[in-house]
Amino acid sequence: MKVLLVFAHPEPRSLNGALREVAVRELEAQGHQVRVSDLYADGWKSQVDRDDFPTLEPGARLQVAAASGQAYAAGTLTGDVEAEHEKLLWADALILQFPLWWYTMPAILKGWVDRVFSYGLAYGVGEHSDKRWGDRFGEGVFAGRRAMLIVTTGGWEEHYDARGINGPIDDLLFPINHGILYYPGYDVLPPFVVYRVDRFDDAGFEPVAERLRERMRTLSTIPPIPYRRQNFGDYLIPSMQLRPELGDPGATGFALHLDGAGQAGS
Ligand code: FAD
Questions:
Q1: Which domain CATH number covers 152?
Q2: Alpha helices in the chain (DSSP H)
Q3: Domain assignment of residue 202, yes or no
Q4: pLDDT tens-digit readout, 208-260
Q5: Total-model pTM
Q6: Does ligand 1 come within 6 angstroms of the Cβ of 12?
Q7: Span 76-128, pLDDT tens digits
Q8: Structural domain count of the chain
Q9: How many CB atoms lie within 10 A of CB 233?
Q10: For the Flavodoxin-like fold domain, which residue ranges apply (predicted)?
């Protein structure tokens, strides 16, 4: 497989940096081709603004989705964004790696998504009618490709379980897994999460590294999280409500959008 790893940590000598090396080495040992986008090292610009659309008339009102769609169609996006598009379209698998900061990804990685997931590529794709609501959630440009997260947390695993104070990790990661990766079509694999890392020592590292190597060995085979597909009957269109007969009666929240008994483990 061809694998793109997008790395969002400011320090190469960090635990995340060490885990990245483990992942890349194991993928290469398995015969995969790997490319890394190292956002801090590359000085990635994290905010979308006018500079993203060099052909926008001076003084014209910036409407980001419209400008993104026009620039993507015309091939006038900036070189850094186009380089990421080339890597994304090259890759059979996408890995986003980051420390959990304030319950989510570091701003630089969110900015990578905001700038790189362009209108016409990752959203605004496909027919909108009473039968379909765009190519998304199970369809889209990246359908048939795989994606997963590698995440480290300061909090303990118990803090992120069903009754933990932080809320379940699968709920916290739902906006990324479902809203960013599944949306443009990726099959999203269960995340690789390392908990309670701030007092990690060398002795703790090797078992985690081995668990990560094992996940890298199964990148092409592990079953994805069974999210429901949008255009195949589970949802009413255009309200996009899950049909009332599906899901547990009275159930609410993210787990409703899983097709099956439960979400794959972390
Ligand atoms: P580092 O700080 O680089 O390393 C962690 C430990 O691993 C160190 O003790 C280091 O010595 C050790 N280590 C062991 N082996 C190695 C090796 N081979 N190489 C390098 N280091 C090694 N946590 C939460 O749970 N929820 C949050 O919402 C949250 N929000 C945060 C917000 C901010 C702004 C910040 C700064 C932290 C937050 N945290 C949160 C904690 C954060 O998730 C952790 O600090 C982070 O995951 C640690 O990863 P790191 O790569 O930076 O680790």
A1: 3.40.50.360
A2: 15-29, 64-74, 79-90, 107-116, 169-172, 174-176, 202-217
A3: yes
A4: 999 999 999 999 999 999 999 999 999 999 999 999 999 988 888 999 999 97
A5: 0.97
A6: no
A7: 999 999 999 999 999 999 999 999 999 999 999 999 999 999 999 999 999 98
A8: 1
A9: 11
A10: 1-214
